[in-house]
Write a structure and sequence with these properties.
single chain, 153 residues, 8 helices
Length: 153
C-alpha cells in the first residue's frame, strides 16, 4: 500500500474481516499491520483498545503475539481494573488477565529485591502461550510492511 493511504481503524477491521472470509493473504497481512501498528502509538493499558485487539485476534486468525505489548501493559498496570473496563472481555480473557496479574503480584510480594518488569513479559508469554518465534515473526512482518510503506513504487 502507498505511504499516503490511510483508513480509520474501524475500516481496517472491516477490511480484515473481508480478507479473512475470502482468504486474501496479502491484504490480510496489511490490514493486520495497520490495525496493530497504528494502535502501538496509543495508550497500551487502555482496556477498551485491548478488548478490540483481542477480538481481532480471536475472530480473524491473527497471531496472539500481536497482542503482546498491550497484554504486558495491562497485566503490569499498578491500578486495578475497573468494572466498566472489564465488562466486554470474555470469561477466558478475564481469567487469563486475572491469573497473570495475580502471578505478578505474588512474585512482587515474594521477592526481596525489586520486581523485574521482564517477569511481566514472561508471565504473559506463559499464560497466552506466546513464543519467542511468534514474536520474531511479528517483528519480521512489521519490518517488511514498514519497508513497503516507504517504497515509492
Amino acid at each position: 500500500m502507498h505511504a499516503d493511504f490511510s483508513l480509520p481503524r474501524t475500516s481496517w477491521v472491516a477490511l480484515l474481516s473481508i480478507t479473512h472470509r475470502y482468504e486474501i493473504p496479502n491484504v490480510h497481512e496489511q490490514a493486520t499491520y495497520e490495525i496493530f501498528h497504528n494502535s502501538s502509538k496509543e495508550y497500551k493499558s487502555d482496556p477498551k483498545l485491548v478488548q478490540l485487539l483481542i477480538s481481532v485476534v480471536e475472530k480473524y486468525d491473527v497471531s496472539r503475539a500481536h497482542l503482546f505489548p498491550w497484554l504486558v501493559a495491562l497485566v503490569g498496570r499498578e491500578k486495578p481494573l475497573k468494572e466498566d473496563e472489564i465488562a466486554h472481555f470474555s470469561a477466558l480473557t478475564m481469567s487469563r488477565i486475572a491469573h497473570a496479574r495475580e502471578d505478578c503480584a505474588r512474585r512482587a510480594r515474594s521477592e526481596s529485591s525489586k520486581f523485574d518488569p521482564n517477569d511481566v513479559q514472561n508471565i504473559v508469554r506463559k499464560i497466552w502461550r506466546i513464543t519467542e518465534k511468534m514474536l520474531d515473526e511479528i517483528v519480521a512482518d512489521s519490518d517488511s510492511n514498514s519497508d513497503s510503506d516507504s517504497d515509492p513504487s
